[in-house]
């Protein structure tokens, strides 16, 4: 048996994959696969509408927020968020706490003035408290990334700001309760917690729609997407179908509260081993903002002993635990514990870590 600890594309719930398999040749009694259905057919329409309705229910999305399904992934939204929202004042605040928010800020700078609210951090291992931020009162929005997937840094608070809050939740979406009304826009690429790559969820407050820059490509234009019920062009129908099944799976497994409890239990298990290893395992992230989704660590020392790390990865693979290698920009190990990873699977990783510690300390 293989346990997939990938950072994304990542593990999907086995129950969902089995349902996809069972329905593959004959989707909902249509006699054809969902991949072969017209996106304008009523059969497909029901699938997309149900996915959006289930998401609205799961997150308690207020009626004055639109849910859009788009393509282009998180990177598409680095551009789309700026193209659609920066126009009101021409400037926006970016809270750069890791690789992904840095990339988003760089992209946005093509379309307006970007103000970095923090001095450049020496390392992405912390979230400076909001009292230290230098916010621009003229900003159209404040942007941040709730969970930095590469560095394993997750916000432990929702910023309180006077302008719309824009948040990249790609790697912790639907893993803890959120109050949507605190945000102007939330987006998430599907391929970590909610489905296959190819579909991106956008939740945006109605009054922010329609302020896009003139150069905004139609495919990234919130107003056009909204007017066309996310069917401006052919959507990633298969991805939306699978994502809809994941939403049903979350509903059947305790909802967001259930996902949140699991996430806490799983990540605590691994962080406890790291913290009790006398420095053999080392996680550079400040305790308060350690990610429940992506647990990065080094082995042997804070800089990492590459030989030991290689051995650990080989041992893990031999036991069926795969895709544990850290992001190429930071090295080391990264265990991603998204919603679909079970406590039982996490315990197998914990067991390996304890045994490896005993043999190599
Ligand atoms: N934001 C975050 C937090 C991510 O983890 C990623 C991808 N790993 C992205 C954005 C970029 O997403 P994509 O590859 O879908 O463009």
TrEMBL record:
It is an enzyme of class 2 (transferase). CDD domains: PSAT_like. InterPro entries: Aminotrans_V_dom, Aminotrans_V_PyrdxlP_BS, Pser_aminoTfrase, PyrdxlP-dep_Trfase, PyrdxlP-dep_Trfase_major, PyrdxlP-dep_Trfase_small. Its EC number is 2.6.1.52. Gene3D superfamilies: Aspartate Aminotransferase, domain 1, Type I PLP-dependent aspartate aminotransferase-like (Major domain). One of its GO terms (biological process) is L-serine biosynthetic process. Its cofactor is pyridoxal 5'-phosphate. One of its GO terms (molecular function) is pyridoxal phosphate binding. Pathway: Amino-acid biosynthesis; L-serine biosynthesis; L-serine from 3-phospho-D-glycerate: step 2/3. The keyword ATP-binding does not apply. The keyword Zinc does not apply. SUPFAM superfamilies: PLP-dependent transferases. Keywords: Amino-acid biosynthesis, Aminotransferase, Pyridoxal phosphate, Serine biosynthesis, Transferase. It catalyses: O-phospho-L-serine + 2-oxoglutarate = 3-phosphooxypyruvate + L-glutamate; 4-(phosphooxy)-L-threonine + 2-oxoglutarate = (R)-3-hydroxy-2-oxo-4-phosphooxybutanoate + L-glutamate. It comes from the Eukaryota. One of its GO terms (cellular component) is cytoplasm. It holds the Pfam family Aminotran_5. Belongs to the class-V pyridoxal-phosphate-dependent aminotransferase family. SerC subfamily. This is Phosphoserine aminotransferase. It comes from Drosophila hydei (Fruit fly). The lineage of its organism: Eukaryota, Metazoa, Ecdysozoa, Arthropoda, Hexapoda. The gene is LOC111595231.
